[in-house]
Amino acid sequence: MAPRDLTPWGGAPLLSQGSWAPVYFCEFQHQPSFFKDIKLSYLRSDHGEEVPFVFGASIWGSHRSRTGPVHRPLEVGPAAQWPGEPGREATQPEVDTTLGRVRGRQVGVKGTDRLVNVFLGIPFAQPPLGPGRFSAPRPAQSWEGVRDASTAPAMCPQDLERMNNARFVLDGKHQIFPVSEDCLVLNIYSPAEATTGAGRPVMVWFHGGSLVVGAATSHDGSALAAYGDVVVVTVQYRLGLLGFFSTGDKHAPGNWGFLDAVAALRWVQENISPFGGDFNSVTVFGSSAGASIVSALVLSPLAAGLFHRAIAESGVITLPGLLDSNPWPLAQSFADSLACPSTSSAEMLQCLRQKAVEEILLDKKLKTIASYTVDGTFFPKTPKELLREKQFHSVPFLLGVNNHEFGWLIPRGWGILDQMDQINLEDMLAPLKPFVGGPMNTWAGTQMDKPNEKPSRN
Prior knowledge:
Residues 92-417 form the Carboxylesterase type B domain. By secondary structure, this protein is of the alpha/beta class. The protein is built from 14 helices and 13 strands. The protein folds into two domains: 25-403, 3-Layer(aba) Sandwich (Rossmann fold), CATH 3.40.50.1820; 406-458, no CATH class.
């Protein structure tokens, strides 16, 4: 095996280097400034709070509307959080892909003279409609003429109320996007001077959200592209039961959202060069559920050769409660709630594929449940078995956590935020210790659905 460059990433210590792959570890310790008015000073970096730093203080999107997107002015995306002049729109770049030509937007980023070409909503797979629902993604079809890639795409179907729960934290700085099953798209942010064959490193982002909420456009990659001199790709994948429904047999083995991630990476391999990216230097990265996807890709044989480095921020696929070893009872319950047959997998699938997405969105299970399965394709064995047998891709892996994971989210779920002014960090963490290493992630996800209220600071 050829020797690897083991220079630590940003000073992160090397945890493991056997004959397989180097693994690094980092801990993030900073609190975003927009939390300063609602959090106590001793609470540093909670779950997911590293993401604004990664994307240059990007503004998360509001996801309350199902119709009529409010087109995001890119000059007030993450660029607006950097010192200097506002971002500026300059021109409309065009690029040829293997499926057709796309036209995007060119924007400036505060604090730098570098321009970024932005292409939004490029399809990497066909819309998963009709027989495509609860099926593996099919390659996207070509188009005639020039495809407009200048406006934010629709999100995959999800619980919009849950997505809006964090709005008060960001003082309402949210954009509004619709939802649609025609959502298997990706966004590209590339330095304007990175022309075809420029060979910039590529970073492919998978968003978090417990595998039930989120969107590619929630995080604007223009600042990261400008300051990091990289091509940033943000990916959408199917969510909730639409993304992970399984009957446990050949009719619906599941893991559709994971298969979407593989399809997106295949598209990147075939198309990123005209955007200035190097298909031989692809890093997959994500936070929370997105980090779980990253670690899943490291283990899946389907992702072989599609990426070359991996970064998992506050999440891994081996977290307790994510694997459903017996998905049939949930499939039956889901079918019953939609008045579909629940004894035959084939009849169940035929019925569920005919249901309107609006009807499916009313089912509470879609909003709260997303588990993966050992489907025999994406996962031939359980992740733990693959790890024990050293069946994973030999790529450098950076694993990260935040120093106060769920230190604010859990007390908020317990309804004790108004008492936190009177306790110190050690006292606050004491009751959380029994949950560490247990099913905390699943429990915390349910707490994030609770209504938001600012804590009293009197």
